[in-house]
Write a structure and sequence with these properties.
mainly alpha; 4 helices; transmembrane helix
């Protein structure tokens, strides 16, 4: 009796998942999976952040040596 209920239920859930996958594929959900992740990480204008003195981790030689453990 349990198999008569569970077999069609499992097949139905599998088909439902397959339909959801094809719906997402057709609506462009998988077009650019890496683009959104990199848009969060990369700045809009990289020239604004390059070359500023306050961006350096250790501007003095003493600080660089301390960071290296010397």
């Amino acid at each position: 009796m349990n198999l008569l209920l569970l077999m069609p239920l499992s097949i139905g859930l599998g088909l439902l998942g397959l339909c959801a996958f094809f719906w997402a594929l057709r609506n462009g959900q998988f077009d650019d999976p890496d683009g959104a992740a990199w848009r969060v990480i990369l700045p809009d204008d990289p020239s604004e952040t390059e070359g500023k003195n306050d961006d350096k981790l250790a501007p003095h030689a003493q600080d660089r040596n301390a960071r290296r453990g010397l």
